[in-house]
Each structure stands twice: as structure tokens, then as C-alpha cells.
Amino acid sequence: MLLATLCYFKFTYGGFCFAIWSYWFLFSPVACLNLCILHTSWFHVQAFPFSTFTFRVLAMLPDVLATAQFVSFFCLQQHGSSRFASTSVVKQSSGGLFGWLLGSKPTQFPALDVPLPGVTIPPPLPDFVEPAKAKVTTLPNGIKIASETSTSPAATVGLYIDCGSMYETPGSSGASHLLERMSFKSTTNRSHLRLVREVESIGGNVSAIATREQMCYTYDAFRAYVPDMVEVLIDSVRNPAFLDWEVKEQLEEMKAEIAEFSANPQGLLLEALHSAGYTGALAKPLVAPEPAIHKLDSGVLKEFVAENYTAPRMVLAASGVEHDVLVSIAEPLLSDLPAVKRPEEPKSVYVGGDYRCQADCQNTHFALAFEVPGGWYEEKTAITVTVLQKLMGGGDWFCTGGVGKGLYSRLSLRILSHYHQIESFSAFNHIHNYSGLFGILATTSPDFASKAVDLAAGELLEVATPGNVTQGQLDRAKRAAKCKVLMDLESRAVACEDIGRQVMTYGEREPIEKFLKDVEAITLNDISSTAKNIISTPLTMASWGDVTNIPTYESVSRKFHSK
After folding, report:
1. DSSP character for 240?
2. DSSP E strands, 255-361
3. What does the alpha-carbon distance between residue 558 and residue 547 come to, in Å, rounded to a whole number?
4. Is there a single domain that holds both residue 397 and residue 440?
5. Is the same domain home to 271 and 374?
6. Is residue 295 part of a domain?
7. CATH number at residue 314
8. What is the arrangement of strands in the sheet containing 364-371, beginning at the earlier edge strand?
9. Are residues 269 and 372 in the same domain?
10. Tens digits of per-residue pLDDT, 221-276?
11. d(CA 482, CA 326)
12. Residue 61: inside a domain
């Protein structure tokens, strides 16, 4: 870049000033200030020939500032800017005649595959690393300890108990819901504040969730803190204090949660399907009914925990922890639990039914569901239903994000793409150990509710009829099912939960390769026959919102059981 100059000649009665300005000065705030002072002083000198000494000094300031700035810039370019940046490992050249202006430049670059001096290259990983296998150890009192190692620097530890809302009695209704909220509160060994501080000090994350069949407590942190994680986790489960003031505080929170439950129509419909479709254990509510809240207190919780939190019904699982290390840490903390005989699982009977709730809502939410006989213990049926759910797919009428959203599923192509009155339309499955539910959840405008129910019934009948599903659709559904499971298992928390639940259900953790082979083995005949068996069970309907136009239960049931 050539140096261009602007010359300002200022004539006064007392002297002559000459200033050289460079265009590059215009890019700095100081240069702008110089120009302002220059033009201001020139105006005063021209307008007032007999100006005071102050104006004469002011007229010289731009020249002084410009000279100082020019010298500083020149020196900076000549001597480098090492005080502003670290020294480069690449040899630098002076840059030639205009190096002071354009800066120095590297004369040689090391190849990208050549390590920098003083850097040690770690040993390369092999092309294939054998996936870690889950190991299971059963303590003398019946507690199972299962873990799976990984290369992650973090670990997740979970304690899973075969106890949920299905084990509640009329006197303890809502206890599981309250136990979820009372997790990681004060224990007999530490206050809630101390527990929170201990978790925060290692950057951990704790959580708990209650289901109809299990209680799950998890702790996620760096694997170096596994001993602390296991101790806090077991202390929170074995020694809860259930302080009266903490219980009352959580009961108030539960009231607010129940009041806001109507904002979750999908969760409300799933609860309604269980209460209407089953009799017995699975019909018991997972979300505590409001009348039950007034009966819950610390005494009810202590009795429920003492009765159900027993050794044979517990599994301690971990993802990212060496098995021998986990056993050595956990055994002293769990071996003193008494070996109480495992009680018989409460019975549930699927009967079907209808639930309707008229609510102040501008939409109509409804669900059609049928039983999945056998649940997870009928593994072939459960896996086929998983693929069937991906085959039907669906979702919301407006879907954000990238690929993999099920936009080529049957419900997306056949329903959501053609009926703008429908806001959401998706297949679902909710499987338990011995039974499960499969069907369609939908949200539509009230005037289109009757037609939407007919469409849902028609889609279920379509997949149950041989020849209506193509091999391409099935292959796409298989890939979607496998990808969903594999992506979920990349999460430590999901992997830990999968280990805990499988060990609790099957007594072992089946390798993922077995699941992938089972999915790949599913045929078109498996899809149609499984769907036909499912829709041959009694229909369960649930609707919420403006239910005026929802067809009667009998009229919808006849579509499936007319013969």
C-alpha cells in the first residue's frame, strides 16, 4: 500500500506549519481527533488573524499528535507485537521493504502430520474396539450390581427399585409421586443443604423418576468421584429422614403440579388410558389424585419404603464404571440389607373402556389404544410393536429440525399432509412387563373430531391387513427403530437406565447386537399379524377438551370387532 499524503498549509502572521497526514490515520480514533482539532484551529486562525497565543498552540497540536502516532506505528511494525500475542513456532521473515507496513510473514510451515516440538503423540486407537459387556454380580441378600465400562471420563450410577404406583394401596395412593419429589432431600446422615453442596462440589447431577413399575434414582458426575456418588445415592435411598416440613413443602408443590397437568394433554390421555383400560395394579394413577394428597404424610412414606425398598427388589447399575470397582464400593453399603422374600407382583387385567372429559379447550385431544399382550416378557411382540410404531410414525403438522423426523412415515404422508384440521397425529406404544398399550394420539379441531377418529381407526386397520405395507416402508421403519435405540444409548443416563431395567426384568443385560438382529428379522407378515392380534383386543378410548363430536365408544369399537 502506497503512502498517500494530504498536505495542509496554514499561514498565520506569526509562523508557518506543515503537517503530513497518511490515509491510514483516518482509521484510528486518534486520527479523527487530530482532524477535528486541525480544522477547528484553522478556522480560528483564519477568522481571527490576531488570535491569542492559545489558538497558536492549538494549531500546532495536530502536528505533534500525528508525528507521535506515526513514530509509534513504525516502531510497532519494526519490533513486532510479542507483548500482545504469544510467540509463533513458525519462523518469521522481516517482510522486505514494506514489512513495517504489511507485517512479517512465515517463510516455512510444518506439515500437518508432523508434531510440534515437545508434543508427545498418544498411541493410536485400533480400527475396531470391542464394545464393553455388562457384568452382573448378585450379593448374598439378593441385590444385583451391574455395570458397563466406557471410555468416557464421566459416569452415571443408578439405583433401581422394583416398586411403583402399581404397589400402592388405597391408604398410600400417591406415595410414588411424592417419593419422586422427596428424592435427595434430608437423610439421617446429612441435611438437604449439605447434600446439595456435596453434589455441587463435584459438578454432579442427581435426578429421580417414578413409574408404574419402578423407582429410579440416578447420579451423574466425573468417574473419579464414583465412591462419593455411590455413597450419596445409597444414603438418599436407604436413610431418608422424611422431615415433616419437607414433606409438607413438596405436597404443596404437588398441588400446583396437578393443577397444571391439564397443560399436558398427551400425559393426561396416557393416564386416562390406563385408568379406563385396566383393572387392578396398572389402573392405579401415576400422578397422585388431589384427594389422596390430603392423606399423605411422612408416616405413609416411611411405611411404603419399609415395605417395598427391600434387597431382592434392588439393582445398582452404572455406565462408565469398572465392575470390580463398583462392587467393592457398593457391597459394604448394601450387604446389611435383610434378604426379604420378594412379594408377588400385583395383577392387572386389560378390559378396555372409555374416558371423556369436557374441558375449556379450543381443540379436541383423543386417543385410541389396544393391549400389547405379554409386554416386555413377550420380547418378539414388543420389538415388532417398536418397529410398527416407527412404521406408522406421525407427529405434529409443523415439524422443525432436520432429517429423521418421520416425515416419510405412513401417518405423515397419508394424514398430516392432507388434513390441515389435524394438528398432531402419531402412533405410540407404552409397554410394561406383562402388558402394554399401542395406538394413536391425535389433536384436531372440534368440528373435525369425528372424521379424525375415523381416520385413526382406518390407519390401524390398514397396517393389520396383509399387502398394505410395502417392503420399502418396513425397511425404513427398521432403520428408524435401530437408529433411535443406538442414538439413545449414546447417553450415559439412558445406558445406565437400560442396564438397570433389563437386569431387573430379565436378570441380565442383553447385548445390543441381539436387538439389532431381532429387528432385522421382522417380516411383513410379522407386522400384519402382530397388528391384527393387537386390534383384536378390547378398544380403549380417551378424549379431553371439546369432546362434543367424538363418536360413541360402541360405534368406534364396531369398526374393529364387526365380525
Report:
1. B
2. 278-280, 314-319, 348-350, 353-358
3. 20
4. yes
5. no
6. yes
7. 3.30.830.10
8. 353-358, 540-545, 364-371, 436-444, 422-431, 394-396
9. no
10. 999 999 999 999 999 999 999 999 999 999 999 999 988 887 889 999 999 999 99
11. 30
12. yes
